[in-house]
Design a protein that fits this description.
Length: 74
């Protein structure tokens, strides 16, 4: 129950913190540039680069959440 409250609290606070750093004249749209892993220039390589970038991004978010949960447990 304690973890559920903590996770819900983080989900409520994280968008507020990210939006609070916005300034006038900056684009608030989240934009990910794909990592160039395959450089052949074919559509298949572009699709692979896109999903490879998403996989790395989601993995880094999962690691960040895991570290936060371990720190909060201490």
């Amino acid at each position: 129950m304690k973890r559920l409250v903590l996770i819900c609290g983080l989900l409520v606070l994280l968008p507020v913190q990210a939006y609070a750093q916005a300034t006038i004249g900056t684009d608030n749209v989240f934009n990910i540039q794909p990592i160039t892993f395959l450089t052949t220039g074919t559509p298949e390589a572009d699709v692979f680069n896109y999903f490879f970038t998403l996989e790395i991004f989601c993995g880094m978010i999962a690691l960040f959440i895991r570290v936060c949960l371990r720190v909060m447990r201490l």
